UniProtKB/TrEMBL annotation:
Name of the molecule in the record: Ferredoxin
UniProt key word Oxidoreductase: no
UniProt superkingdom: Archaea
InterPro entries in the cross-refs: Fe-S_cluster_ET
Length: 79
């Protein structure tokens, strides 16, 4: 399972930060950052989700008000 985060879409509400500790506040830029992620396209970041963090990652995606966070499992988007 992996997460895909579109940082350009992020509006800095930081609800994801409260739900999963892989997201961090970047108040200087008014955006969240996804720790340990690889930039796969300009401003689009991906990383694997540890099994013990799957619930938190899914919840972070669900609370994002602009759908900047997507969760994929075996190539299929699940959140």
């Amino acid at each position: 399972m992996h997460v895909r985060f579109d940082r350009d879409t992020c509006i800095g509400m930081f609800q994801c930060v409260a739900e999963w500790d892989a997201f961090e506040e970047n108040k200087d830029e008014g955006k969240a950052d996804l720790a340990d992620a690889e930039e796969v396209e300009p401003s689009v970041f991906e990383r694997e989700i540890p099994e013990d963090a799957e619930f938190d990652a899914k919840f972070a995606a669900r609370v994002c008000p602009v759908d900047a966070i997507e969760i994929y499992d075996d190539g299929d988007r699940i959140v």
